[in-house]
TrEMBL record:
Name assigned to this protein: Nucleotidyltransferase domain-containing protein
Family annotation (Gene3D superfamilies): Beta Polymerase, domain 2
Keyword match Transferase: yes
Highest taxon, organism lineage: Bacteria
Keyword list, A-Z: Transferase
Tagged with keyword Transferase: yes
Single GO MF descriptor: transferase activity
Cross-referenced InterPro entries: NT_sf (IPR043519)
Amino acid sequence: MSQSLALSAQELAQVRAILAAHLPPGVTVSVFGSRAAGAGKPAPKPWSDLDLALEGESPLPLSLMAELAEAFDESPLPWKVDLVDGKAISAGFAAIVKAGCVPLDLTARPEA
């Protein structure tokens, strides 16, 4: 498992591959919620969803968000993936996301 994320190496590679196939350059991705595990936080349930915050320079097109949602729905990942656009959420929710998020490096290579 990744030391900061409650995901197996294979699951993390699948998530990265889907994001890399759909996201334009310059969009950052962070994991938040129960799978952004940290010291002192309980481990998520095996069926807990994966919460991803996407952030570009401006709000992302709804068509892109729909394409990503469909790609995750059709993937072999064993849980639901929830997507939020960091530029399209309230300031209060953005603060909650940022307080407990773990940045996801889309360029990282799987560990051998």
